[in-house]
C-alpha cells in the first residue's frame, strides 16, 4: 500500500490561534498534511471557514521556520464545489477534495464529478473525491477506471460529515477494503472518529493510508505521541 500520511483535522484546534496550531502540528508534532474542513451550511448543517482564512494560514505556515511540507488537504463539504476551485487554488490549497454527492447535485452550473476533476487538475491542484457513509464506492469505479482524468485520492467518510468528535462508523470499513483490493496504489483517506484504538486498527487493516484525526490529535496531551501511534499502525 502507499505511504502512511497523517493529516490532523484543524477543526479540532483552537481557532483563536489557528496559525500557530497549524504550524506547530506540522513542525513540532510530526503531522504530514493539514486536513482543512470547509463547510458551507448547505451541504452540511454547519459553517466553518472559507478561502480567506486558508490564505492566511498558508502565509503563516510558510513563514514558520523549517516549513518544508506544504500539503493543504481541503475537504470541501460544500453544495457547489465547482464554484470555489479558483479561490482555493489562489489560497494555497494543494489537494481539493470534493464530495461526489455534491458534484452530482450541483446546479450553478451543473458540473458532474468527471468534469470537476478536470477543472481541479487544470487549476494545478490534486483532486480527491469524498463519499458520505451512505454512498457506495462502486459509484467511483467509472472515474477510477475510465479513460478520463482520475482522482488522486478517495476519501471514505467514517462519520456523517458536519461535525468533529463523532463516533467512528464501522459499517464504512468494507468500502475501504473494496477500494484497496481494486486499487493497490490509490491514496485512500479515512475521516471521522479515528483514534489510536480499534478504529485506526480497522481502518489501516482495510487498507487506508491517509489518516485524518481531529479530536484524537488536538485533544491529546501529546499530539506527537498520537500521530506516531497512528503512523505505526498504518506502517505495521
Ligand atoms: C467531519 C470532518 C472531519 C472531522 C474529524 O465532518 O470532515 O474532518 O473534523 O474530526 P474527528 O477526528 O474528531 O472525528
Ligand atoms: Zn474532514
Compact overview of the structure:
By secondary structure, the chain is an alpha/beta fold. 37% of the residues lie in helices and 17% in strands. The protein has 10 helices and 8 strands.
Overview of this structure, please?
37% of the residues lie in helices and 17% in strands. It contains ten helices and eight strands. The chain has an eight-stranded parallel β-sheet. It starts with a strand and ends with a helix. Residues 9, 11-12, 35, 37, 75, 159, 161-166, 191-194, 212-216 line the site of D-xylitol-5-phosphate (DX5). D-xylitol-5-phosphate (DX5) is lined by residues 9, 11-12, 35, 37, 75, 159, 161-166, 191-194, 212-216.
Count up the helices.
10
Number of strands: 8
**Low confidence ranges:** none
Please indicate the percent range of residues in DSSP E strands (runs of 2 or more). 15-25%
Numbering strands along the chain, what is their spatial order in the largest sheet?
Answer: 1-8-7-6-5-4-3-2
Organism: Pyronema omphalodes (strain CBS 100304) (Pyronema confluens)
Binding site for substrate: 9, 75, 162-165, 193, 214-215
EC number: 5.1.3.1
Catalytic activity: D-ribulose 5-phosphate = D-xylulose 5-phosphate
Task: Give the tags.
236 residues; alpha/beta; eight-stranded parallel β-sheet; 10 helices; 8 strands; binds D-xylitol-5-phosphate; binds zinc ion
What does the secondary structure layout of this molecule look like, with pairings?
Elements: E1 5-8, H1 18-27, E2 34-39, H2 51-63, E3 72-77, H3 85-91, E4 95-99, H4 100-105, H5 113-122, E5 126-131, H6 141-145, E6 153-157, H7 173-182, E7 187-191, H8 198-206, E8 210-213, H9 215-218, H10 223-235
Parallel strand pairs: 1-8, 2-3, 3-4, 4-5, 5-6, 6-7, 7-8
Helix pairs in contact: 1-2, 2-3, 7-8
Residues 9, 11-12, 35, 37, 75, 159, 161-166, 191-194, 212-216 line the site of D-xylitol-5-phosphate (DX5).
Family: Belongs to the ribulose-phosphate 3-epimerase family.
Cofactor: Zn(2+); a divalent metal cation; Fe(2+); Co(2+)
EC number: 5.1.3.1
Amino acid at each position: 500500500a502507499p505511504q502512511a500520511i497523517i493529516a490532523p483535522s484543524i477543526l479540532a484546534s483552537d481557532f483563536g490561534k489557528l496559525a500557530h496550531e497549524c504550524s506547530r502540528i506540522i513542525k513540532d508534532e510530526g503531522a504530514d498534511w493539514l486536513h482543512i474542513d470547509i463547510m458551507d451550511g448547505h451541504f452540511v448543517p454547519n459553517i466553518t471557514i472559507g478561502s480567506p482564512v486558508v490564505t492566511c494560514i498558508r502565509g503563516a505556515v510558510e513563514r514558520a521556520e523549517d516549513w518544508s511540507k506544504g500539503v493543504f488537504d481541503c475537504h470541501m463539504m460544500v453544495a457547489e464545489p465547482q464554484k470555489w476551485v479558483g479561490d482555493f487554488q489562489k489560497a494555497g490549497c494543494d489537494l481539493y477534495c470534493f464530495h461526489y454527492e455534491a458534484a452530482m447535485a450541483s446546479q450553478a452550473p451543473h458540473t458532474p464529478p468527471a468534469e470537476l476533476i478536470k477543472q481541479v487538475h487544470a487549476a494545478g491542484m490534486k483532486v480527491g473525491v469524498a463519499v458520505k457513509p451512505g454512498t457506495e464506492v462502486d459509484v467511483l469505479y467509472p472515474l477510477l477506471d475510465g479513460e478520463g482524468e482520475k482522482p488522486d485520492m478517495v476519501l471514505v467518510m467514517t462519520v456523517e460529515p458536519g461535525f468533529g468528535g463523532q463516533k467512528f462508523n464501522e459499517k464504512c470499513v468494507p468500502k475501504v477494503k473494496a477500494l484497496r483490493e481494486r486499487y493497490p496504489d490509490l491514496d485512500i483517506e479515512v475521516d471521522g472518529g479515528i483514534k489510536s484504538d480499534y478504529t485506526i486498527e480497522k481502518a489501516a487493516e482495510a487498507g487506508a493510508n491517509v489518516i485524518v484525526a481531529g479530536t484524537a490529535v488536538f485533544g491529546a496531551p501529546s499530539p506527537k505521541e498520537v500521530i506516531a501511534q497512528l503512523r505505526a499502525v498504518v506502517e505495521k
